[in-house]
Amino acid sequence: MSAAPLRGTRPAQNPWSGVLFGVGLIAFIDEAVFHQLLHWHHFYDLSTPAIGLVSDGVFHAVSWFATIAGLFLLADLRRHEALNWQRWSGGVLLGAGVFQLYDGTVHHKVFGIHQIRYVEDVFVYDLVWNLTAAAMIVAGAVLVYLTRSAAPVRAESPAR
Q: What is the dihedral of CA 76, 57, 100, 34, to 10 degrees?
């Protein structure tokens, strides 16, 4: 006689799984679109193009580790019937937004390891990049906040 598992438990794992997946997803989009398709920059532009390509490869590998970690946590949530898609989606938006804001401020401006695009007036690119990041952070925070008090519900155990 075991008690039925609590559905809706693990409230912190939902957004954390989403955050990891969001970081990996936005890093993948950055790598695929801005590095590979548009050729706007490399992850590290302060050296030779060959070093830039190597830095892109390392960046890509690390971003996929975050994605896979987020998906393992997501599978665990599903296995325990504790997945809250809204809370998880809020985590995805938070992770993507925080990563993009970090990239746009720390990498682009503080360390200067690359810019979004090497043009005369990069201000417009920076503004769009960072406002998009802020919008994702706000939307994600709202979703996580609104789903914070979802009370755990006992899952029905099958009748024997």
A: -130
pLDDT, tens only, 19-73: 999 999 999 999 999 999 999 999 999 999 999 999 999 999 999 999 999 999 9
Cα–Cα–Cα angle for 61, 37, 59, rounded to 5 degrees: 20
Helix axes 123-146 and 85-102, enclosed angle (nearest 10): 150
The span from the CA of 84 to the CA of 22, in Å, is 16
Residue type, 128: V
At 106-135, the pLDDT tens digits run 999 999 999 999 999 999 999 999 999 999
Tokens 């990239």 -> residue: 103
Amino acid making up residue 129: W
